[in-house]
Amino acid sequence: MVFKKGHVPHNKGKILVPSDEKRKRQLQYQKKRREKKRDELKKKRDSKRHEIKFEVLSHYSKKLSNSRIPCCNCCGENQFLIFLTIDHIKSRKNYDKEPKNLVGKELYRYLQKKNFPREYQVLCMNCNSAKSDGGICPHQRRNK
Ligand SMILES: [Zn+2]
Ligand SMILES: [Zn+2]
Fold first, then answer.
1. Tens of pLDDT along the chain (144 residues)?
2. 77 CA distance to ligand 1 centroid (A)?
3. How far apart are CA 131 and CA 133, in angstroms?
4. Cα 74 to ligand 1 centroid, rounded to whole Å
5. What does 8-46 look like in DSSP terms, one character per residue?
6. Annotated domain spans of the chain
7. Ligand 2 centre distance from Cα of residue 61 (Å)
8. Predicted TM-score (pTM) of this structure
9. Which of 18, 13, 15, 42 is nearest to 29 (CA)?
């Protein structure tokens, strides 16, 4: 800093460098605040994602399984929303209108925007992976 002659620095008499203790407290405080903010944002994002998933799955479950709550269209699993996914009823290459590789929130948004097209259903992870493996879920084989 350059001072003119006779100029009194505004911080005259004050300690310029915070003591170590103070500095440490400051850093801790900042860190806490950052973490809190991050948690809040994450919570917000999660609840938004949960909301849209619930809405889309509810819609399909109501239509296909006549269920008030989201449930698997094959085995009826409805205890945990996290187990449920949107399944492409036909193989995915028949969905030329759908943008490529939509997953998760993007897919839910897309379905919402398209007013819930018919070629989709709700399946739990088990039924979904069984279906994509063997073309048909064992649950369905047993029923036939
Ligand atoms: Zn299932
Ligand atoms: Zn099944």
1. 566 677 776 666 666 666 889 999 999 999 999 999 999 999 999 998 899 999 999 999 999 999 999 999 999 999 999 999 999 998 777 787 888 888 889 999 999 999 999 999 999 999 999 998 888 999 998 655
2. 5
3. 5
4. 5
5. PPTTTTS-SSPPHHHHHHHHHHHHHHHHHHHHHHHHHHH
6. 21-143
7. 15
8. 0.73
9. 18
